[in-house]
Design goal:
The chain is mainly alpha-helical. It has 2 helices and no strands. It has a domain of about 30 residues. The radius of gyration is 23 Å and the shape is elongated.
Length: about 60
């Protein structure tokens, strides 16, 4: 990202390319990042539920 931001200044970096999509190349290619996003969300939820379950299992029942 730094290279991309730094080379946008006039007179610095390589000559500008003809851009059809965004700098990251994700525009129009939803099918490429959608499975990764879903997997990330599932991983976060699974970790959260695992942590809740461990807390409930290891926490003493009588204390609040």
């Amino acid at each position: 990202m730094r290279h991309s931001a730094g080379s946008d200044r006039p007179g610095r970096g390589p000559p500008p390319k003809r851009r059809i999509s965004s700098a990251w190349g994700t525009r129009g290619y939803v099918w490429q990042w959608m499975p990764a996003g879903r997997l990330f969300i599932l991983t976060v939820l699974a970790t959260n539920f695992l942590g809740d379950g461990l807390r409930d299992a290891l926490e003493p029942k009588g204390e609040q």
